[in-house]
From TrEMBL:
Keywords: ATP-binding, Cell membrane, Kinase, Membrane, Nucleotide-binding, Phosphoprotein, Transferase, Transmembrane, Transmembrane helix, Two-component regulatory system. The keyword Iron-sulfur does not apply. Residues 192-246 form the HAMP domain. It comes from Paenisporosarcina macmurdoensis. This is Signal transduction histidine-protein kinase ArlS. It comes from the Bacteria. SUPFAM superfamilies: ATPase domain of HSP90 chaperone/DNA topoisomerase II/histidine kinase, Homodimeric domain of signal transducing histidine kinase. The chain crosses the membrane at residues 20-43, 164-195.
Length: 468
């Protein structure tokens, strides 16, 4: 494994806050370092140019001074020029005067060593600079004093320049380290502040994992940013999961309760038969009939529970002509309940098409008609009518049964809910029929409304959107 891969794995194993701090610190450090390098190069060039200007200025002053004195220049004349001498000494420069053969005739100050005369590229006129050495800048120029022809040589040390560069680079490195530490700390604190909602979200998830939905979600974050959107989605998802979980718990509790009763009835009759009923034809017949009825009720209940669970997942909606399938359901009901009177008021336009599968539509109509017959006095009277509107069609199913109290209307679509549990059980109801109807209507994009009056009957109105 290469060093780069180890670094990547090491960083990937850190927490998001640490990675954020490392990333922000690295970016700020690299930015600061890049700016420092550019600034250092620019300052170095500018300061070196200032040093070259100092050498040029000194060389011009020296050339002008020597040539202005003529052939009668003396040491006393040089010493008397206090300004020139002071400038050379203050700048730590060294000057010497050479004849045409390179023999030194005069030296001012003694702070630097000169290169060998034979190694110097002599200019034909004027003076020339030599910037090859990093420790100093050299200059040599032609000079003529009457008949005397020679050279003036200058050595300008760069100690001050190098000290300033060392100070600048040390300062920049120190500031870079400080910037790295400060940016890392600021990045960590900022990450801690910005990621606090995510930390709260993690704690909430841990609570749900450990304790389920016993505790309410407590994430107080109202900013409309990406984290806020994530929390909104999470809260919506958890609310749906909580609702689904509670419905599942209630479903299991109700189902176990509903199945326990017929099982106990069958168990009791089987125990009765085992003790003495098998020798008594009357008790045997009665027990078998009751047991078969309870087993049939359990089978119906299980089928409805499976249908309810399966229907909540299936939302296929092919187009269907509902009038035709209503007639098919009526024929089926009349074969099972021949004494029932069902009045089917056909609409003017019989080819009413909606987006719902034929099986689903028949199941909706079948469940409502079965309920109407079950909770009506014999012979049951039921009427079916259609209300046609531009965007929807409403199927009204009216019975003359026992009706529903106003307080119970809002609950009749709940699973296993019965207006009168004892009476409903005697009539064979499981409490799931209207739950299935409501679920199927929702899946079809429709809605269901109920109007009822106690002891006078009920009207179920099924609203379906029409195909445009």
């Amino acid at each position: 494994m290469t060093t780069l891969n180890r670094w990547k794995q090491s960083i990937a194993s850190q927490s998001l806050k640490k990675r954020w701090a490392i990333g922000s610190g690295a970016v700020i450090f690299l930015s600061f370092a890049t700016m420092s390098i550019i600034l250092f190069i620019a300052l170095k060039g500018w300061l070196y140019q200032q040093e070259e200007q100092e050498v040029n200025r000194t060389m011009r002053d020296l050339t002008s001074f020597f040539e202005s004195q003529g052939p009668f220049l003396t040491v006393q004349d040089i010493q008397s020029n206090k300004g020139l001498m002071t400038s050379i000494v203050d700048k730590d420069q060294t000057v010497r005067l050479l004849n045409a053969d390179g023999i030194e005739l005069l030296q001012i100050n003694d702070t630097s060593t000169f290169p060998l005369f034979d190694d110097i590229d002599l200019p034909r006129k004027g003076y020339a600079l030599n910037t090859d050495k990093s420790s100093s800048i050299s200059a040599i120029g032609n000079i003529q004093l009457g008949k005397f022809v020679g050279y003036v040589q200058l050595e300008h040390p760069l100690k001050g320049f190098q000290s300033i560069m060392t100070y600048i680079i040390t300062t920049m490195l120190l500031f870079s380290v400080c910037a790295l530490l400060l940016s890392g700390w600021i990045g960590y604190m900022l990450a801690t502040y910005l990621l606090r909602p995510l930390q709260d979200l993690k704690i909430s998830m841990d609570d749900v994992a450990a304790h389920g939905f016993e505790k309410d979600l407590a994430i107080s974050y109202h900013a409309k940013d990406e984290i806020g959107e994530l929390i909104v989605v999470y809260e919506s998802m958890m609310a749906k999961l909580k609702s689904s979980f509670e419905k599942q718990q209630q479903f299991m509790a109700d189902a176990s309760h509903e199945l326990r009763t017929p099982i106990q009835v069958v168990e009791g009759h089987l125990a009765l038969l085992n003790r003495w009923g098998k020798d008594d034809p009357v008790i045997l017949q009665e027990s078998l009939e009751i047991s078969l009825r309870e087993v049939k009720q359990m089978k119906t209940l299980i089928d409805e529970m499976l249908e309810l669970a399966r229907g909540e997942q299936l939302k296929e909606r092919p187009p269907t002509y509902i009038v035709k399938h209503t007639i098919d359901v009526i024929k089926e009901i009349m074969q099972v309940h021949p004494t029932v009177y069902i009045k089917h008021n056909l609409p003017v336009q019989e080819e009413i098409e909606i987006l719902i599968s034929s099986n689903v539509y028949q199941q909706i109509i079948r469940n409502i008609l079965t309920n109407a017959i079950r909770y009506s006095k014999e012979p049951a009277h039921v009427s079916i009518a259609y209300e046609y509107k531009p965007d929807e069609v409403i199927v009204h199913i009216q019975d003359q049964g026992i009706g529903i109290a106003p307080n119970d209307i809002s609950k009749i679509f709940d699973r296993f809910y019965r207006v009168d549990p004892a009476r409903s059980r005697n009539l064979g109801g499981s409490g799931l029929g209207l739950s299935i109807v409501k679920m199927l209507m929702d899946n079809a994009g429709g809605s269901i409304f109920v109007k009822s009056e106690k002891d006078k009957g009920s009207t179920f109105s099924l609203m379906f959107p029409l195909i445009k």
